[in-house]
């Protein structure tokens, strides 16, 4: 059984004129401050109440089998801004150290002003019903008793947590019970309660206030006591104001800073500029107006690198000077391609945990960088080289198309299946290092036997890897992507089969050509500089 709980944070600011970046900074600031262990510093400085104070104990002691986990990660899945309202969908991952696993929990938040908000944990009752039974064995280890009944173990654990906190933190004017035993007698006499009734006169409500008692004992010790402090009290259907893990107003850590406020009277802050700012939220990499800064940067970097490589060979290699300009450019491209594809392969491998269902923002960024490196390299090569064989040109065009299409679909659908497809596609372009080294040896007249052997290994290695990729793509498509709902899905299906088959045919030609070059190297007289193109 799995829990799919998606967080919806709706933030409404009373301050007009914030830029899109400022709004998103508020959302990120809120989420960052909720994560452990940063929430410990937050509750010690500014916000000691329910949302941040609730998870402090598990942040300090991750092995505590509390029903309240420790937030360790989040994913802002969507944002929308209109006028002075920003909506963000956030999924928090809560870590339970005793179970050594995380659960996604939905967080609902409505900010009322620039520095205050209401919050609730949505569907928490369902999550608690699923998580708590898994914690019972660990609660039994901490509870002082030998019962094997799950209900009694839960009661004993919660009761001991409440009474331990009461004895330690609720002293003097904040004292709630005459003794520890008196506390245990009382809290085990009230109903245990359920997550959706956490604002009533029960044990769950009192346990919920345990992590907040040391933060503000004057306020929260009464919630642990006999009376419930006006929070843990009996309620009826006519009094539906129970806590329910939410609808509490808190201070927003950081809030909206005055430096973020853009008054409508400031020069240049017209409605048109605001519209331009907001329009960037709906801009995509496939839009013709999108400015791909990284691609241009890589192209310039390749230009400089090509000049440096050319100069290096001119100074250090006598054979290079005897080559035709066309083959000198080929040598430069082989060297540059070896370097870039090796870097891209490393970045691609950083994303491969996705094959096992492990996704991360770092992996997505690494794969996107690898795809950009390869695509810009191919564009540079098409412009830089004087002559290229038609199959090589087709390979570059089709590879760029495959990378672009898979990434566009991933960006458009947010389906991780297209992310995995992009990883598979990229193996077509990041595994030719042996071929580049072999061709360098062929052009620069390295030892013949070594060069020929390296080219033969490269021919087989490239064919095997790309054949596996070609077979993997249709299989993965049949398992994860076969159902067609929209026209773009049909485009993807057709493109996948056509491009994969075409690239495999091109690789058959390339492996044959590489093998042929290896025999040419063996038969070529030593000291003879081959002038024809590869």
Total of helices: 19
By secondary-structure content and strand pairing, the structural class works out as: alpha+beta
Helical proportion? Answer: 55-70%
pLDDT < 50 stretches:
1-17, 242-281
How many structural domains does the protein architecture include? Answer: 3
How would you spell out the order of helices and strands?
A: EHHHHEEEEHHHHHEHHHHHHHHHH
Mind summarizing the main beta sheet?
6 strands, mixed
Radius of gyration: 32 Å
Mean pLDDT: 79
Beta-strand proportion: 5-15%
Outline, from the CA principal axes? elongated
Strand tally, please? 6
Distance between the termini: 57 Å
Write a structural description.
- There is one protein chain.
- By secondary structure, this protein is an alpha+beta fold.
- Helix content is 56%, strand content 10%.
- It has 3 domains: 1-133 and 252-282, no CATH class; 143-245, no CATH class; 285-523, no CATH class.
- β2 and β3 form a beta hairpin.
- The model is unreliable at 1-17 and 242-281 (pLDDT under 50).
- The protein contains 19 helices and 6 strands.
- α11 crosses α14 (361-384) and α16 packs antiparallel against α18 (448-481).
- The protein has helices at residues 20-34, 38-45, 50-53, 56-60, 124-142, 150-169, 180-187, 203-208, 217-224, 271-279, 293-316, 318-322, 325-351, 361-384, 390-413, 416-426, 433-443, 448-481, 487-523; strands at 8-12, 70-82, 85-96, 101-111, 116-122, 246-251.
- Strands 1, 2, 3, 4, 5 and 6 form a 6-stranded mixed sheet that branches.
- The chain is elongated, with a radius of gyration of 32 Å.
């Amino acid at each position: 059984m799995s829990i799919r709980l998606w967080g919806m944070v709706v933030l409404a600011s009373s301050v007009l004129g914030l830029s899109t970046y400022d709004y998103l900074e508020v959302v990120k600031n809120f989420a960052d401050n909720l994560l452990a262990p940063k929430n410990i510093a937050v509750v010690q400085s500014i916000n000691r109440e329910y949302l941040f104070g609730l998870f402090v104990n598990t942040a300090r002691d991750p092995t505590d089998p509390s029903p309240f986990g420790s937030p360790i990660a989040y994913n802002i899945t969507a944002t929308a801004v209109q006028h002075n309202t920003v909506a963000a969908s956030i999924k928090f991952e809560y870590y339970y150290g005793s179970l050594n696993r995380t659960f996604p929990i939905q967080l609902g938040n409505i900010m009322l002003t620039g520095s205050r908000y209401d919050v609730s944990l949505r569907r928490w009752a369902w999550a608690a019903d699923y998580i708590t039974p898994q914690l019972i064995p660990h609660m039994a280890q901490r509870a002082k008793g030998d019962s094997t009944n799950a209900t009694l173990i839960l009661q004993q654990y919660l009761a001991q947590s409440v009474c331990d906190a009461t004895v330690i933190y609720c002293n003097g004017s904040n004292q709630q019970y005459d003794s520890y035993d008196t506390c245990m007698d009382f809290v085990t006499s009230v109903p245990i309660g359920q997550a959706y009734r956490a604002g009533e006169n029960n044990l769950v409500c009192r346990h919920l206030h345990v992590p907040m008692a040391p933060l503000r004992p004057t306020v929260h010790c009464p919630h642990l006591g006999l009376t419930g402090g006006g929070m843990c009290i009996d309620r009826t259907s006519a009094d539906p104001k129970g806590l329910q893990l939410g609808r509490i107003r808190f201070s927003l850590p950081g809030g909206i800073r005055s430096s973020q406020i853009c008054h409508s009277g400031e020069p240049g802050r017209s409605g048109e500029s605001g519209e331009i700012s907001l329009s960037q939220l709906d801009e995509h990499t496939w839009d013709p107006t999108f400015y791909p800064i990284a691609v241009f940067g890589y192209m310039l970097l390749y230009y400089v690198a090509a000049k440096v490589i050319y100069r290096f060979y001119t100074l250090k290699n006598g054979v290079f000077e005897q080559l035709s300009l066309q083959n000198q450019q080929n040598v430069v491209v082989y060297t540059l391609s070896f370097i870039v594809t090796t870097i891209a392969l490393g970045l691609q491998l950083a994303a491969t945990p996705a094959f096992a269902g492990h996704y991360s923002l770092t992996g997505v960024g690494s794969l996107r960088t690898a795809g950009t490196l390869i695509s810009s390299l191919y564009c540079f090569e098409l412009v830089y080289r004087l002559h290229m064989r038609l199959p090589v040109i087709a390979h570059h065009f089709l590879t760029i198309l495959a990378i672009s299409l898979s990434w566009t679909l991933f960006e458009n659908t947010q389906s991780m299946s297209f992310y995995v497809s992009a990883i598979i596609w990229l193996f077509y372009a990041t595994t030719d290092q042996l071929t580049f080294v072999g061709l360098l040896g062929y052009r620069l007249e390295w030892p013949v036997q070594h060069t020929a052997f390296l080219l033969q290994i490269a021919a087989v290695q490239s064919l095997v890897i790309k054949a596996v990729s070609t077979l993997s793509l249709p299989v993965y498509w049949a398992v994860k992507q076969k159902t067609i709902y929209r026209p773009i899905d049909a485009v993807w299906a057709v493109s996948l089969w056509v491009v994969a088959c075409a690239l495999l045919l091109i690789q058959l030609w390339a492996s044959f050509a590489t093998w042929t070059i290896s025999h040419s190297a063996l038969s070529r007289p030593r000291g003879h500089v081959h002038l024809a193109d590869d």
